[in-house]
What we know:
Blueprint: H1 2-25, H2 29-54, H3 60-87
Helix pairs in contact: 1-2, 2-3
Amino acid sequence: MSIILAISLGLLIAAAALVLVRVNLGPTNLDRALSLDVLIVIITGIIATQILRTDDVGALPIMVVFSLTGFVGSVSVARFMARKEDES
Length: 88
């Protein structure tokens, strides 16, 4: 089980690195916002994997707050962009 968790942690870190490249290269602000939302999901997965590896649920509130922050951020960016398109 430890090997599977180590492999999944490595894959999540690789995915986070690729998403950071996408944030840097994204041609529009919506691409960057979507990439940051994906990065928040990946970081939440990394925290969940660490909770499984260490059998310590102390980081669970951090994971919940991080998830809620990502959700609120995504909704606010979507509303801001929708309002900006309505004005045009």
